[in-house]
């Protein structure tokens, strides 16, 4: 496969790598402490299994994308790559929607369950999580574009012949 | 336009193609039917999820003060999203089933397999997002979060949590079936040819 044909997919994967790495790093470094009534109140990403899942999935996605960047694209294992891309995109999509659900509870609280919002006390943590979510969303969107491109390349779906 | 003899009438844009049913043509409709039932069950069970419970808050003298709390799915946006997405997915499966059974010969310029695969992918993404959000919300309700001082609610509302987890299980099964159907409909697109390339510039 000559260089000109490899450029679009390389660029897309590079962008996806950037987005996934950004999301992981921002989520992992999110930390904030608050002092409430003489009690130290620390918010880290390990406090919630959802944020741990988000960081894990984005770390896996960035590692996978890094490997795929330098993988020679042969048609023989093209279908396998496509399946892995699909799995990655679905996992990324699920991680951001789970984080959104928990983040919404953290921001607005849930009066029916007696859960108070915590964003008022730890605003830096909330901002970090929001930034990580945006990066994760970008990674998911770029992965869907990668899937479309791989579909076209390996299955010839946009093949136009009269 | 008048047609004579055994000429095939060609209406603008629609071609009549002869189709033969093979034995493995029944795989996709069966899987779609199962996925339709799974997602419909998930949406209905979560939508009708409600539990009322009275708690004794304080006692003044000898009369206890009671408070009635209701747990509804509407209280949590994640569950609302879950119901909506499962409704959309079951509607999509029903529509694809009907198109499969009734509109066999209807194919607009060869776009039909492409549109079916694209819609399938969209619905798989939606359902996966919905079911995961509901699953993590349910985990939060079951275990609480001591760091954020959020108490768990599943020890007080057991049947609400049980029904919720049942709905999530049905949705996970529906998601797995829809992924299989999506993969099959993508594989069917191999070397797909569009008729009359005038629609794509």
Automatic annotation (TrEMBL), chain A:
It is found in: Cell membrane. Keywords: Cell membrane, Membrane, Transmembrane, Transmembrane helix. The keyword Membrane applies. GO terms for cellular component: plasma membrane. The chain crosses the membrane at residues 12-30, 50-71, 83-106, 132-151. It is a multi-pass membrane protein. The keyword Transmembrane helix applies. InterPro entries: CASP/CASPL, CASP_dom, CASPL. Residues 9-141 form the Casparian strip membrane protein domain. Belongs to the Casparian strip membrane proteins (CASP) family. PANTHER family: CASP-LIKE PROTEIN 1U1. Homodimer and heterodimers. This is CASP-like protein. It comes from Fraxinus pennsylvanica.
TrEMBL record, chain B:
It comes from Fraxinus pennsylvanica. It holds the Pfam family CASP_dom. Homodimer and heterodimers. The chain crosses the membrane at residues 26-48, 79-102, 114-137, 167-187. This is CASP-like protein. It is found in: Cell membrane. Keywords: Cell membrane, Membrane, Transmembrane, Transmembrane helix. Its main location: membrane. Belongs to the Casparian strip membrane proteins (CASP) family. Residues 26-175 form the Casparian strip membrane protein domain. InterPro entries: CASP/CASPL (IPR006459), CASP_dom (IPR006702), CASPL (IPR044173). GO terms for cellular component: plasma membrane.
């Amino acid at each position: 496969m000559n260089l000109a044909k490899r450029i679009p997919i390389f660029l897309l994967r590079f962008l996806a790598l950037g987005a996934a790495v950004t999301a992981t790093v921002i989520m992992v470094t999110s930390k904030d402490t608050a002092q409430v009534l003489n009690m130290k109140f620390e918010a880290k990403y390990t406090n919630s299994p959802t944020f741990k899942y988000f960081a894990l999935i984005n770390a896996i996605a960035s590692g996978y994308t890094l490997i795929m960047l330098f993988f020679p694209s042969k048609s023989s294992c093209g279908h396998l790559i496509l399946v892995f891309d699909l799995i990655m995109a679905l996992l990324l999509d699920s991680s951001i929607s789970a984080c959104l659900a928990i983040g919404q509870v953290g921001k607005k609280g849930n009066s029916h369950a007696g859960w108070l919002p915590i964003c008022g006390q730890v605003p830096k943590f909330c901002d970090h999580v929001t930034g990580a979510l945006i990066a994760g969303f970008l990674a998911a969107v770029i992965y869907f574009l990668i899937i479309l491109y791989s579909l076209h390349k390996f299955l010839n779906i946009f093949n136009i012949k009269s | 336009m008048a047609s004579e003899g055994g000429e095939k009438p060609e209406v603008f844009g629609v071609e009549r193609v002869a189709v033969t049913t093979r034995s493995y043509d029944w795989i996709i409709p069966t899987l779609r039917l199962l996925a339709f039932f799974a997602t419909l069950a998930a949406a209905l069970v979560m939508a009708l999820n409600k539990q009322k419970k009275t708690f004794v808050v304080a006692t003044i003298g000898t009369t206890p003060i009671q408070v009635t709390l209701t747990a509804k799915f509407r209280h949590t946006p994640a569950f609302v999203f879950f119901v909506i997405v499962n409704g959309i997915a079951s509607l999509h499966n029903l529509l694809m089933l009907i198109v499969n059974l009734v509109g066999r010969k209807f194919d607009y310029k060869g776009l039909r397999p492409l549109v079916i695969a694209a819609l399938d992918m969209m619905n798989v993404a939606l359902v996966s997002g919905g079911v995961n959000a509901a699953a993590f919300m349910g985990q939060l309700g079951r275990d609480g979060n001591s760091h954020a001082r959020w108490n768990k609610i599943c020890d007080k509302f057991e049947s609400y949590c049980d029904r919720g987890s049942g709905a999530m299980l049905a949705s996970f099964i529906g998601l797995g079936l829809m992924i299989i159907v999506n993969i099959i409909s993508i594989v069917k697109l191999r070397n797909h040819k569009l008729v009359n390339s005038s629609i794509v510039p």
